[in-house]
């Protein structure tokens, strides 16, 4: 690893990290401020939801949630946090080497006396450190929000930790899959459409594949791998699916190194 | 040992040609000019030598090391000035140069300040605020600050005003006097002639000729255009004259050989106008293919 590149990469992403962290923290507080209302009127909510089509409830995982408990409520809004974190990690993954190639600064970096493997490792670690900061902020925000709004309701702390720490593996998935896709396509002109596509695509796959019957497409999406409703019900991860998630991440990383070492860096055309 | 040793280097981008079967050597302390029109494969060759792209076949060695497998070691002693310079827009010039310097051993601050002073580069400005020419200056300082042993210059003068071009050439000559080997790519014959000791000419991805700059100049064609009112057109029927074109009393042709011979012919007839000029690179190339 090259600390020079790591520092540079981390600094370049700092602004984005701050914005994402504030957004995610704000989301946590806004949702939690409604917790007492939801919890008190959970019965009413259940009755209302019962009138909704079952498919719709399934799509949002609402059929298995209990809004009157802390963890049930967290599982309800966790989806939005996941979407944010997926987009953030996707952004970093798709942009990791493509931004440099688009802005043609790759020539500068790759003519320095550093090997490509070292460059990629430094960049990956910098991106990892970047979203880890956001995750830390998210965790701290959740703990504070709970302590303010939980209103004496009991919850299983270890289950909460499972839900919260899952986001790191969850983001690693989007970072590495984003990276490998960016290396497979010839040129990425703009990062955001790709990361939005990947994040929402993965979400939709999880949400609606149940609606269409037996196709088990949802098994490949991290939204399924880290389904909070499952974690709350079982007090554990869905181990095979989490392993599948880690496997996809590792394969993407290995493929990324392989592709990047052989990649042609093209000049201005 | 040659500093650069390229053998049968070939690069295809999918089906489109980059370079085909390029071989040449550059010895220590040389300034090697690499000339050819746009799209001939000059940048492709340089990018291959810097391992920015990978060869389809053939090999290249720099300092006796293979460019594909030993790239990082080689690049410790290489300075590169790309034809188009792009740097991290948000950074200040000073920070970018420091970032660049941090990759090399030793302290480059003094050399950085020296070079910036010579090139009149303001260190406290943001890269995004710089004009094209000024970015080019950043490129020059960036390429030289770590005292490389081998310099790759890819059309370095574009965007520099004539004064800066001169300063730049002086700088390159100084570096060369210190023993730095220079690989200089350009499509401007004039600047190659001013600076280089040996040239390679590349066209459509292939090396057409590698020769001493002197013998190239001696072998070079002059483009002669004579406007005459009389019927003196036939006097230019002599050895060394080619591509004769006669049009309303204007004779134009290429001439190769002793320039006095053709001057005597011109003075023997009544002329209203004469121009003798260097053929453009393009015209020399045309010649190579006729």
Low-confidence stretches of chain B: none
| Global outline of chain A | elongated
Share of helical residues of chain B: 25-40%
How many extended strands of chain B? 14
Structural class based on helices, strands and sheet pairing of chain B: alpha/beta
Order of helices and strands of chain A: HHHHHHHHHHHH
Uncertain residue ranges of chain A? none
Instruction: Enumerate the strands of the largest sheet of chain B in spatial order, edge to edge or round the barrel.
Output: 6-7-8-3-9-10
Mean pLDDT of chain B: 84
Give the strand content of chain B.
25-35%
Domain count of chain A, please report it: 1
* Overall strand count of chain A: 0
- The gross shape of chain B turns out to be globular
Average of the residue pLDDT scores of chain A: 87
Spatial separation of the terminal alpha carbons of chain B: 37 Å
Largest sheet entry of chain B? 6 strands, mixed
The helicity of chain A comes to over 70%
Radius of gyration of chain A: 20 Å
Order of helices and strands of chain B: EEEHEEHEHHHEHEHEEHEEEHEH
- Cα radius of gyration of chain B in angstroms: 22 Å
Strand content bin of chain A: under 5%
């Amino acid at each position: 690893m090259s600390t020079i590149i790591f520092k540079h990469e981390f600094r370049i992403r700092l602004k984005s990290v701050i914005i994402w962290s504030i957004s995610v923290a704000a989301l946590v507080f806004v949702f939690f401020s409604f917790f007492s209302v939801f919890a008190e009127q959970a019965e009413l909510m259940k009755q209302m939801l019962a009138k909704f089509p079952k498919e719709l409830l399934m799509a949002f995982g609402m059929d298995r949630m209990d809004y009157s408990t802390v963890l049930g409520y967290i599982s309800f809004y966790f989806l939005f946090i996941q979407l944010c974190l997926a987009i953030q990690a996707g952004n970093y993954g798709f942009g990791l080497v493509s931004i440099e190639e688009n802005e043609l600064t790759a020539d500068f970096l790759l003519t320095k006396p550093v090997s490509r493997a070292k460059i990629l490792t430094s960049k990956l670690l910098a991106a990892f450190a970047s979203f880890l900061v956001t995750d830390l902020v998210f965790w701290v925000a959740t703990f504070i929000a709970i302590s303010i709004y939980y209103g004496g309701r009991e919850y299983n702390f270890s289950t909460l930790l499972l839900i919260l720490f899952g986001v790191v593996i969850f983001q690693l998935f989007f970072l590495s899959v984003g990276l490998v896709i960016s290396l497979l396509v010839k040129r990425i002109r703009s990062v955001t459409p790709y990361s939005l596509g990947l994040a929402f695509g993965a979400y939709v796959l999880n949400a609606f594949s149940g609606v269409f019957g037996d196709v088990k497409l949802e098994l490949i999406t991290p939204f399924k791998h880290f389904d909070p409703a499952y974690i709350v019900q079982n007090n554990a991860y869905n181990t095979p699916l989490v392993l599948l998630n880690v496997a996809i991440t590792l394969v993407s990383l290995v493929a990324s190194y392989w592709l990047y070492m052989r990649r042609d860096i093209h000049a201005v055309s | 040992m040659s500093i650069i040793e390229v053998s049968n280097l070939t690069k295809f981008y999918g089906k489109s040609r980059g370079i085909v079967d390029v071989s040449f050597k550059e010895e220590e302390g040389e300034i090697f000019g690499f000339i050819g029109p746009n799209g001939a494969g000059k940048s492709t060759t340089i990018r291959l030598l810097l391992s920015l792209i990978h060869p389809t076949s053939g090999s290249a060695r720099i300092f006796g090391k293979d460019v594909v497998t030993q790239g990082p070691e080689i690049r410790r002693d290489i300075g590169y000035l790309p034809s188009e310079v792009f740097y991290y827009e948000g950074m200040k010039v000073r920070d970018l140069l420091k970032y660049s310097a941090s990759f090399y051993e030793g302290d480059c601050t003094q050399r950085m300040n020296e070079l910036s002073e010579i090139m009149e580069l303001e260190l406290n400005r943001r890269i995004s605020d710089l004009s094209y020419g000024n970015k080019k200056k950043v490129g020059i300082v960036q390429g030289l600050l770590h005292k490389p042993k081998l310099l790759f210059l890819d059309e370095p003068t574009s965007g520099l005003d004539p004064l800066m071009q001169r300063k730049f050439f002086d700088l390159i000559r100084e570096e060369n006097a210190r023993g730095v080997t220079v690989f200089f790519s350009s499509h401007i014959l004039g600047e190659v002639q001013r600076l280089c000791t040996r040239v390679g000419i590349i066209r459509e991805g292939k090396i057409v000729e590698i020769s001493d700059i002197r013998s190239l100049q001696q072998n070079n064609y002059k483009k002669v255009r004579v406007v005459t009112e009389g019927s003196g057109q036939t006097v230019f029927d002599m050895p060394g004259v080619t591509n004769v074109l006669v049009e309303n009393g204007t004779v134009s042709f290429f001439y190769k050989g002793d320039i006095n011979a053709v001057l005597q012919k011109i003075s023997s007839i009544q002329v209203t106008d004469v121009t003798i000029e260097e053929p453009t690179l393009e015209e020399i190339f045309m010649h190579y293919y006729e």
